[in-house]
Specification:
Elements lengths: L1 H49 L8 H23 L2 H15 L4 H15 L9 E6 L6 E6 L5 E2 L6 E8 L7 E7 L4 E2 L4 H9 L17
Antiparallel strand pairs: 1-2, 1-6, 2-4, 3-4, 4-5
Helix pairs in contact: 1-2, 2-3, 3-4
Length: 215
C-alpha cells in the first residue's frame, strides 16, 4: 500500500513538473493579453467616442489587435535578445531587476532554471557521469565539461574536469577534477541529466552505466 502511494505521489509530481512550463507559459501569455487588451480597448473606445464613431468598430477586432500586439512585442524581444545592442539593453534590465528586494531573487532563480532547461547549461556539458561524493559509498551525478584530461604530476593519473550541480538550480555548483578511474559514465543524454537535477530526482530516467570513454 505504501509503495503504491509513493508511486502515485511520484507520478503526480512528474506530471506537475511536466505541465508546469506549459501552465506558466499560458498564464504569462494570458496576463500579457489581458494587460494589453485592457489598455488598448479603453483607448480605442475613447478615441471612437471622440470622433463620433462609437460602435463602428467591433470589440472582437480590438481584442484581435491586442493578440497581435503581444505577439509583435515578443517577436521584437526575441530580435533584441539575438543582437548585441539588444542583449546589452536586456542585461541592463536584468541588472536593475536583480537590485529589487525579493523580486530580484525570484527573477534570478527563474532565469537560471530557464537557461538550464533550455540551452544555457546543457549545451556546455559533454556527458553525465557518476562520482563518489561527498564520501565513499554515496554516488552523485556530475557533468563532464571538457574531454581534455589534466595530469597531476609527471606520473599522475589523468583527472577529468566535471561540474557538480546543486538541486534544483543546476547552474550553481562545484568544479571538481576527479581521477578518471573514479568516474562512471552514465548512458543518459545531458538534457535528461539536467531535468533529473532540476526535479530533485522525481523525473528519474533509467540510469545505466555507459561504455568507458577515452580521449
Amino acid at each position: 500500500m505504501r509503495r503504491a502511494l509513493r508511486q502515485i505521489r511520484a507520478r503526480l509530481a512528474a506530471g506537475l513538473l511536466t505541465a508546469l512550463p506549459f501552465v506558466v507559459t499560458v498564464w504569462l501569455l494570458g496576463f500579457l493579453f489581458r494587460l494589453v487588451d485592457r489598455v488598448l480597448t479603453a483607448r480605442s473606445l475613447r478615441l471612437l467616442e471622440l470622433i463620433g464613431s462609437a460602435g463602428a468598430l467591433p470589440v472582437w477586432s480590438i481584442r484581435l489587435a491586442s493578440v497581435l500586439v503581444v505577439m509583435l512585442a515578443l517577436y521584437l524581444l526575441g530580435i533584441a535578445a539575438t543582437h548585441v545592442a539588444g542583449r546589452q539593453l536586456l542585461r541592463l534590465v536584468e541588472w536593475l531587476l536583480a537590485r529589487v528586494p525579493l523580486l530580484g531573487g525570484v527573477y534570478r532563480t527563474l532565469r537560471q532554471v530557464a537557461d538550464a532547461v533550455g540551452t544555457g547549461a546543457s549545451s556546455a556539458f559533454r556527458r553525465c557521469v557518476l562520482i563518489e561524493y561527498p564520501r565513499r559509498g554515496l554516488w552523485t551525478m556530475a557533468f563532464v565539461t571538457n574531454e581534455r584530461r589534466v595530469t597531476a604530476g609527471a606520473a599522475g593519473e589523468p583527472l577529468v574536469p566535471v561540474f557538480l550541480p546543486t538541486t534544483p538550480n543546476p547552474t550553481s555548483g562545484y568544479f571538481l577534477l576527479v581521477p578518471e578511474s573514479e568516474c562512471r559514465p552514465l548512458d543518459i543524454p545531458v538534457e535528461e541529466g539536467v531535468k533529473l537535477v532540476v526535479s530533485g530526482g522525481i523525473l528519474l530516467p533509467p540510469l545505466r552505466e555507459g561504455p568507458e570513454e577515452r580521449p
